[in-house]
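Sample intake — Beta-ketoacyl-[acyl-carrier-protein] synthase II
Collected from: Schlesneria paludicola
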Amino acid sequence: QIDYVNAHGTSTPLGDKAETVAIKRVFESHAHKFCVSSTKSQLGHLLGASGGVEFVVSVLALMNQVAPPTINIVNQDPECDLDYVPNVARPLPINYVLTNSFGFGGHNACLVLGRAA
């Protein structure tokens, strides 16, 4: 069961809505039971390095049991209605993280990371 999603989250209206819809389609009612945040809100889009950096952020979230924030959320789009960890990191139990990476030209990947026993 996923506890935290590190979203691709580029802060573009079309992209963020599409990712929100995809998360809700995959997880259905469970999508409102975990939090989602965007590393890009803090670092910008690192292009080819984004997936690697977001993987490290996801590992750190598991290790430290803290969901990193999506910063600069002032007026959240009503169509993006998930818990985006607005502006402040949140301590919480995290056993499984999903990290999304969508690349140029359709090179897309999702990784699920689990906490070591």
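Post-analysis note: The radius of gyration is 13 Å.
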